[in-house]
Design a protein that fits this description.
Oligomer: single chain
Order of helices and strands: HHEHEEHEHHHHEHHEHEEHEEHEEHHHEE
Strand content: 15-25%
Low-confidence stretches: 1-11
Structural class: alpha/beta
Number of domains: 2
Distance between the termini: 15 Å
Number of strands: 14
Largest sheet: 6 strands, parallel
Helix content: 25-40%
CATH superfamily of the largest domain: Glycerate kinase, MOFRL-like N-terminal domain
Length: 449
């Protein structure tokens, strides 16, 4: 641990430091900044798109990505006519002149998303040799691009998604299933463009651990490593049989295992194809931006990683133990433990719960780390954490004292999975509204002597 003689800024409260660190993490993934940078690299001067330029995409950041692309094209590609459609979550719209924005349901798909996805596929099928398709993809795209394979209804997809959400399956496993039910995901969108002879350039904002293009929004333009067999095994792993999963879905997956359905796009399908996936923003870059900020406030940052997964309550307990260990060993200088990744929350049958994985993690940390000089924040970089409209929550010693004064027992709220209710009563919610980007969850713990 390097020595730093500075001390936490006396002009900034713990609350301000926590929230400013989160803001720094979000800002570095702003599509208005990063989309133009990558467009200039992908299409250098003299190599602008020729012929038709179709823009499609989906995700919580896709509308803001489309706005950024249009602004760039207006200046640098005046001769290029843009057209297309992108899907985003309700409330995540951004102004565009030529690219249609469709708002739809997330995380559970709805008819608006299905209709928009049909239009994405229909426009892609109209591409011709020499055309360019730019795909704008970010977290949330898996649900928004829900276009079931033939024989599977949108209601069947909705029931499947709800069952997977309640099971506690991590997002990577959920997406393996969804890829094999979709006409677009798992590289199927790129497959259509390749057949038309078009060039595909996909810009991806990653919200998944590992930042694999095949995992981001279930990889509509990327090769898929998973199989129908994997998808069926995941349903069996979480005991999701015909009582939870529609028969049409189970039959489709079984037919795929038997070789009666086409597999998702594989690496061999991309040989000689003009397809490129560019990951333009990641969780780790955001953690680094937060680390730079807290360093200016006198804290030594320690990035624990951007791939932390598991049950939110269990991760909170583990991080509380880590914090206690550092305090017990003695802290030479203020320390900031920063991490990312995507936890899960398993809701028992009969409980509704309120909140999301970030707030649940934080409440677990709160309950397990009763230290005098600890402060923490956990929030989703898209601005929405689970079932409510907050990005997450925060606490410091003052918030803890208010909870004691009001006799609020965190264990009671944890048992009810009502993390939102706990922090709402304390006035300790983090509320940003949609940030129009999405690079997974952000967590920070501040420790002092």
């Amino acid at each position: 641990m390097t020595q730093n003689t500075s001390s936490p800024s006396m002009s900034a409260s713990k609350e301000a430091i926590l929230k400013n660190a989160f803001a720094a993490a979000v800002a570095v993934a702003d599509p208005k900044v990063i989309v133009p940078q990558y467009l200039a690299k992908i299409f250098p001067v003299g190599q602008e798109p020729r012929g038709r330029c179709l823009v499609v995409g989906a995700g919580k950041a896709s509308a803001s990505m489309a706005s950024a692309l249009e602004a760039y094209a207006k200046v640098h590609w005046p001769q290029v006519t843009l057209e297309g459609i992108v899907l985003t979550r309700y409330g995540h719209n951004s102004p565009t002149a030529y690219i249609q924005i469709v708002e739809a349901g997330h995380p559970v798909p709805d008819q608006a998303g299905m209709d928009g996805a049909k239009e994405v596929l229909a426009l892609t099928k109209q591409l011709k040799q020499g055309d360019v398709m730019i795909a704008l993809v970010s977290g949330g795209g898996s649900s928004l691009l829900t276009l079931p394979q033939e024989g599977i209804s949108i209601d069947d997809m909705r029931k499947t998604t709800e069952a997977l959400l309640r099971s506690g399956a991590p997002i990577e496993e959920m997406n393996v299933v969804r890829k094999h039910l979709s006409a677009i995901l798992g590289g199927n969108l790129a497959r259509v463009a390749i057949a038309c002879g078009a060039r595909v350039e996909a810009l991806l904002i990653s919200d998944v651990t590992g930042d694999s293009p095949g995992d981001i929004a279930s990889g509509p333009c990327a090769a898929d490593y998973s199989t129908y067999f994997d998808a069926l095994n995941i349903l069996e792993k979480y005991d999701l049989g015909d009582s939870a999963i529609p028969v049409s879905v189970l039959n489709h997956l079984k037919q795929g295992v038997a070789g009666e359905k086409s597999e998702t796009l594989k690496d061999a399908d991309l040989v000689n194809a003009q397809v490129a996936n560019h990951v333009i923003a990641t969780a780790y870059k955001s953690l680094e931006a937060a680390a730079e900020y807290v360093r200016t406030q006198g804290y030594e940052p320690m990035i624990l990683g951007d791939t932390i997964i598991g049950e939110a309550q269990e991760v909170g307990v583990a991080h509380a133990a880590l914090a206690r260990d550092y305090v017990a060993k003695g802290i030479d200088q203020p320390l900031a433990l920063i991490s990312g990744g995507e936890c899960t929350v398993t809701i028992p049958v009969g409980l509704k719960g309120r909140g999301g994985r970030c707030s649940e993690y934080l409440l677990s940390l709160f309950a397990s780390a009763d230290l005098p000089n600890i402060a923490a924040l956990a929030a989703d970089t898209d601005g929405i954490d689970g079932s409510e409209q907050n990005a997450g929550a925060w606490f410091d010693a003052g918030v803890r004292q208010v909870s004691r004064n009001n006799s609020l027992l965190p264990e009671k709220f944890l048992a009810a999975h009502d993390c939102y209710g706990f922090f709402a009563e304390l006035g300790a919610l983090v509320e940003t509204g949609p940030t129009l980007t999405n690079v997974n969850d952000f967590r920070i713990i501040l420790l002092e002597k």
